[in-house]
Amino acid sequence: MVRVVVAAWGESLLALPKRWLSQGGPEDDFQNAELPKLPLPPLQATLDTYLEFAAVVASQVRVEHTRALVRAFAAPDGVGPKLQAVLEARREEKENWVSGGEGEKESLLLGAWSCR
Length: 116
What we know:
With 116 residues, this protein is mostly helical. The chain folds into two domains: 2-32, no CATH class; 43-113, no CATH class. It has six helices and no strands. The protein has helices at 2-10, 16-22, 43-57, 60-74, 79-93, 104-113.
């Protein structure tokens, strides 16, 4: 009877972490798994979300002012589409367009500065 308990214990859920650690094969190499790139939301979706949140925390006068600024930012000749293009290029070049290594902030800021 004790043997059955020990055998059952070895195959129980509590044994799974030990089994995961001891039998890892190439298909279990989750640290080097190929992941899809982070999505880059469209500019208009980002601006719509921004305005939704602004409406919650700001007065109606400030929200209207913010909407005017957002319209100018999103205009075809505005800074928004240029910055979006910089982010799209960065997404294609980098594994993670949101963050990078040392010096990445500076290069992103310089790219944004050149859009002005």
